[in-house]
Amino acid sequence: ASSRASSAASSSSSSSSSSGTKRSRSVGDYDVDRKVGSGSFAKVYRATHRRTRQVVAIKAVDKKKLNVRHQQNLASEIKIMRRFQHWNLVRLLGTYSGPRHMYLVMEFCGGGDLAGAIAKHGPLPESPIVERLMAQLAAGLEFLWTRNLIHRDIKPQNILLTGGLGATLKIADF
Question: What's the pTM value of the predicted model, to 2 decimals?
Answer without folding.
Answer: 0.83
